[in-house]
Amino acid sequence: MGTLYDKLKQYSDSDYYGFHMPGHKRNPQFADCDIPYSLDITEIEGFDDLHHAEGILKEAQERAASVYEADETHFLVNGSTVGILSAVLGLTEKNDTILVARNCHKSVYHAIQIQELKPVYLYPEFDRRIGLSGEVSVEDVQKELERNPQIKAVMIVSPTYDGVVSDVKTIAKAVHEKGIPLIVDEAHGAHFGFHPHFPKNSNRLGADIVIHSLHKTLPSLTQTALLHMNGRLADRTRVREYLHMLQSSSPSYILMSSIDNCMNLLKEQKAGLFENYVNRLEKLRSDLKNLKVLQIVKTEHYDNSKIVISTKAAGMSGKKLQELLLRQYHLQMEMAAGTYVLAMTSVADTEEGFARLEHALTEIDETLQGTAVTEKIGNLPDGELPRLDQIYSCAQAKRLTGSCKMFLTWQESIGHIALEYAYLYPPGIPLIVPGERITKEASDLLRIYQELGYSIEGLMVKESIEVWKNG
């Protein structure tokens, strides 16, 4: 059985002429570039419809479910974001209470805002020694479920953007004992379950809904993702309804063929693909152990595909190391945090790429051994999430109007209630959520990030935040 790509290529090479969308009409005269216009079609005869899949797309999604050992799988062409929105909205009603990890992606907060939910936050542990947020503990989950029996769903992220993995199996068991579903944002763990070097994926660990971003850690085009559903606790019908509402009604066949091709790759070449990757990855990690000032750090339960390079001992910000790697070595990192840089790897990485990273970090490390500290450690944010009091729900805060709304600098905003989000992107985890009272800790953290040159997003006015004066 051929893949969706095979069928698209066959159609592209045929003499069929389309009096239908898209407007480029697969005409190479208007494709003076490498964009694959010839494969770009709409829902025509024989190519199925993602929103009512009965043919080739239904079969492709069933193959994906088989690859990931899920009961049911849906293609996402709007990224993991649409999967997260659909999962949260589909498993809750207006004004419900949801238990949610505070280090979740901004899309989770957008779902909370849309559904006017009451969030109860789970704060991950924080390891000050290495400067990384850790796991969500099952004890904290159990405690909050006992304290808040009105909770209707639980949402966690594992692995985190930095690669930290929580005990999904035990958390799922605790959540299911209360008869409610668990959603796992496993966007950064699409490669889980295909080699013993990496954890099992959350479908196999008991999660009711799992979201994977294929494009993050596997060979698939940007925006491609999967939503999996398992068991009977999740209301699959409602989740499907939200997918139909929130996903494009004209999904890209190029993106969907990329998903199907990735599934075929995992099914047919998994062993060799991951064995070679893991061998290269282990060699890189072994070589980087020789660094003296820069440090490769990780937590106890970790996704080894992520390379986190700590700059704490060097007394420099992660942003400065990111700029050195980019400017001098032409190596583009995934993200720079206050005291570390994140390099993401995948099965598509090459030996040459890994060798360049090892050489660059070794050379920078040797230079740092003979230079004075240029930034004070005390001025570098450690990355721990500030804990703010929620005075209004996010939806309530967004509805506040009148003369009591104003824009203030970080210093001036202390004690006021935020009316907008503030976050660094990446990773897109809100440091301040609308409705929260801004503390000196949060204000200082954002001011320091700003002074170090990080871009703070979510704000309408640069270097200011909208607040409620009489909070």
Give keywords:
14 helices, seven-stranded mixed β-sheet, 19 strands, globular, alpha+beta, single chain, four-stranded antiparallel β-sheet, 471 residues
Give an overview of the whole structure.
There is one protein chain. The chain has helices at 4-12, 56-68, 79-90, 106-115, 138-147, 168-176, 214-217, 236-246, 253-288, 318-329, 351-369, 394-399, 410-413, 440-451; strands spanning 72-76, 97-101, 118-122, 126-127, 132-133, 151-157, 182-185, 209-213, 225-229, 295-297, 306-310, 335-336, 340-344, 405-408, 417-418, 422-424, 429-432, 456-457, 465-468. The longest helix is centred in the middle third of the chain and has 36 residues, at 253-288. The mean pLDDT is 94. Strand 4 and strand 5 form a beta hairpin. The chain is α+β, with helices and mostly antiparallel strands and 471 residues long. The termini are far apart.
The end-to-end span amounts to: 62 Å
Average pLDDT, all residues: 94
The low-confidence parts are none
Oligomerization state of this entry? single chain
Tell me the number of helical segments per DSSP (H or I, 4 or more residues long).
14
Please compute the radius of gyration using only Cα atoms: 23 Å
Question: Which class best fits the helix and strand makeup?
Answer: alpha+beta
- Let me know the number of strands: 19
Strand order of the largest sheet: 1-9-8-7-6-2-3
The proportion of residues forming helix, as a percent range, comes to 25-40%
Shape type: globular
> Which percent band covers the strand fraction?
15-25%
Major sheet details: 7 strands, mixed
